Amino acid sequence: MKQTITYLFIWLAGFSLSAQQAPQYSLFALNKYNFNPAYAGLDNSLSITGVYRKQWVSLPGSPSIQTVNAHLPVYRLNGGFGINIENEEQGPERTTSATASYNYWLPVGKQHLLTIGLSGGLLEKSLDGTRLRAPDGIYGDDPNNLEHNDGSLPLTEIRAMAPIFNAGVYFQGQQFEVGLSVSNLTESQISLTGGNANTKISLNRNYFLIFAGNYEIGSTFTLHPSLLIKSDLVEHQIELSALLKYNDNIFGGASFRGYNSNTVDAVAIIAGFKLNPKMTVAYAYDLTLSALKSVSNGSHEIMVNYNLNKAIGAGTPPDIIYNPRFL
User: What is the pLDDT of residues 173-192, one digit of tens each?
Assistant: First the structure.
């Protein structure tokens, strides 16, 4: 895998390229604000979420992702505010972003809500040249004493930043919700330079469309199906998820990622519960179905959510907020 990453960056050095699609999450149905700024405040109180994901365990250089976000409603302003910090590492490459958002709420009838949101911030990409290995390079145990024998590869860590902007709309009702969002609106460019390396990366737009439902099954169970479609208009990914919740406390389910023989990626087994009225923990284990299953032991993802469960500040919430029924 190390050699594969090295050859990839050798080929990329000195050329312009497009950034990969957004990071993958199996617990997307429990963390909608992460990919749609219009969702800010729709958890009905201050909501803080942390996620750690390790993808394709046992595969050297596989992605590792950490996310922390917080959002809350501001009823006096008929909207919500939020912040989101995300860090992804893939071999010698790291991508870190930090954004802040605001959305505006428009009540539709007595029990429906339409929100429009924007977010902006900074994205940083870095490439650690000390972790690259070239076929003709000279390497020892000292990371400060290496020679790639290739001027297109950096000997140290190089990094650069660019502004990013995202937007979204969200519709929430009593039994279903739907949201559409786009990231990297301005398609900013990042130039990584070091030594003779000069790689320009275009941050392509990514689109996210989500459908989610909430259906009561008797007096103690609720069913929460979800569909997430991700696309950069070149590559697409679809994920279906269904969670069954018992007594507003314990929940479990599964998701399937892919839509044909070329895109089938994994089946995720999901489970979670409330530690107390304010704290929820969820876990997902991905069973790899793609060709990577021969070299990977699956993927792990864990999420912790804290919800204050009380109104903050003044103002009157829309009617729908009085009866929150979604996860």
Answer: 989 999 999 999 999 998 88
